[in-house]
Structure prediction request, 299 residues.
Amino acid sequence: MLKTFSATKNFKYCAILSVLLVAAGLVALLAAPFGVNLFNLDIDFAGGTSFTYQLNEEVTPDVIGKVEDSVADVAGKTVSAVPTGDGTQVLIKTKSLSSEDREKLHEAMKTTFSLEDDARQDVQNVSPAVGKDMQAAAVKSSLVAALLMLLYITIRFDFKSGFAAVICLIHDVLVMISAYVIFQLPVNMNFIAAALTIFGYSINASIITFDRIRENQKLSRRESYDAIVDKSVRQSFTRNINTTLTTLFTIVLIIFTGVSSLVNFAIPITVGIVSGAYSSIFVAAPLWALLKKHQNKAK
Prediction:
């Protein structure tokens, strides 16, 4: 089937699928400026309360899970906990809590870990304004990364390759954002890390395909752009899939064995990596051929 499959002839179907995949994320982003929030914003972006506790034991993934479970009744499902300090301290982030709920959380921690009153070392409120600053920084870093990648691909290949690669990069990030909206994953600093990780992976996957296209252009100068793309996709398909599967094996293990904070990071990464493999094969290369054909018609 792979030997007869044409990525260029089926591009319109792939484009329709891509629109469906990015729809939820795109709608959520467009609705946000109008005050409609479709995301599950964590303390990093929505504001809230953070607590630091000295547990006097190594904060392992099992301990993190125990912390999150013990305070879930007070803080809700949005609670997150991470090791801090020398590794025996834990930083707990929750929605904004009243004084009464803070004391309930404190009692839950004391009971679960047999702590004294002075084990709570710090309590801070995180303003939503800080979250807005983080959002602005995330958008700026993403734009800079996209422009630098466009420049790099243009220098290494050509502008149309760079343009197609950046379109796929945006596509993959939007698919990841759709996963955040659909599964209501908490949007926190992991979101920025996941987005930047997908940026790098998406470009790398596209480069594999474009590198093969460039080689085939040199060897098959009389062939059409569609024929070159279809040949290149078939030749690079196995390498793209193997690279994706190798990466996914480790990340999927985290989903099934990690604590909730790691799982909430692994799920969007998994979605983004699968999307990167798909877009580099079925979107980037056919889009490049389409741009090349329009260029020739314009001449």
